[in-house]
């Protein structure tokens, strides 16, 4: 709640697809009932982005209809839904998994090699084959590299786990949908259960004279499963 009153179910979930900033709720000066979301970057005096904006009632209707579309697909055509989602993500998932595994193997092998190098440094220093000054300098470099690689290994293992959890996430999403087979209206609780973020593109009037139709790209990213394709008829 702010000085503008109820911020509605989409507050904090809309983002500009150009600059990445959040869209904020605004009201027209001439008509206080006319509410719309506008790019926060554009809204500032610097005008570092273009005027990405969309009416509140329009975006709420779009999101409500899309959630209903997804629910209908899962409830009525669950098998096809899972197959379509798997097919859409399979190639990218396999590529990400192969890349992460290759980088993990490379990092772990280098860490093992650095262990041998560091042991050799200590031996050379003890046998006076390496001066104390040179030993300290080389040791610091190798230990820094090894520490960075160990951090990278943790990140890569996390990435691999996330990729492997994709099927589990699909199951979670299907269970969520089955808890909401009837969706009479858009609420904040419903939106946050289903939606991770919504990206709003720059609107273009189809007919500048009439200004009755507006073409605008809206990308909805769902929790667990990302951007969902429509099932082919």
Task: Give the radius of gyration.
Answer: 26 Å
The total beta strand count reads 8
Q: Decide which structural class fits the backbone.
A: alpha+beta
Helical stretch tally? 6
Shape: elongated
Number of domains: 2
Beta strand %: 5-15%
Distance between the termini: 43 Å
Uncertain regions spanning at least 5 consecutive residues: none
- Output the helix-strand order: EEEHEHHHHHEEEE
What helical percentage do the residues reach? Answer: 40-55%
Main sheet makeup:
3 strands, mixed
Average predicted confidence as pLDDT: 85
Largest sheet strand order: 1-5-8
Can you describe what's shown?
By secondary structure, the chain is α+β, with helices and mostly antiparallel strands. The protein has two domains: 14-77 and 185-222, no CATH class; 79-169. It has helices spanning 40-43, 56-76, 78-126, 132-164, 166-178, 188-194; strands spanning 14-16, 23-27, 35-39, 53-55, 195-200, 204-205, 214-215, 218-222. It has a three-stranded mixed sheet. Helix 2 packs across helix 3 (78-126) and helix 3 runs antiparallel to helix 4. The longest helix has 49 residues, at 78-126.
């Amino acid at each position: 709640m702010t000085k503008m009153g109820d911020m509605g179910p989409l507050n904090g979930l809309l983002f500009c697809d150009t600059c990445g900033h959040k869209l904020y709720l605004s009201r027209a000066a001439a008509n206080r009932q006319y509410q719309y979301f506008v790019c926060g970057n554009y809204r500032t005096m610097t005008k570092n982005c273009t005027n990405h904006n969309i009416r509140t009632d329009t975006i709420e209707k779009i999101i409500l209809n899309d959630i209903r579309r997804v629910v209908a697909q899962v409830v009525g055509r669950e098998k096809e839904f899972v197959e379509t989602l798997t097919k859409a993500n399979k190639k990218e998932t396999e590529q990400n998994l192969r890349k992460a595994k290759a980088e993990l193997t490379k990092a772990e092998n280098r860490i093992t090699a650095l262990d041998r190098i560091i042991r050799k440094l200590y031996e050379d220093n003890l046998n006076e084959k390496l001066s104390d000054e040179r030993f300290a300098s080389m040791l610091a470099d190798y230990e820094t590299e090894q520490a960075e690689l160990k951090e990278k290994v943790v990140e890569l293992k996390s990435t691999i786990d996330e990729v492997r959890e994709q099927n589990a996430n699909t199951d979670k999403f299907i269970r969520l949908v089955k808890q909401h087979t009837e969706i009479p209206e858009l609420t904040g609780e419903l939106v946050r259960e289903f939606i991770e973020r919504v990206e709003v593109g720059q609107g273009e009037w189809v007919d500048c004279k009439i200004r009755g139709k507006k073409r605008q790209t809206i990308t909805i990213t769902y929790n667990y499963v990302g951007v969902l394709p429509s099932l082919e008829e």
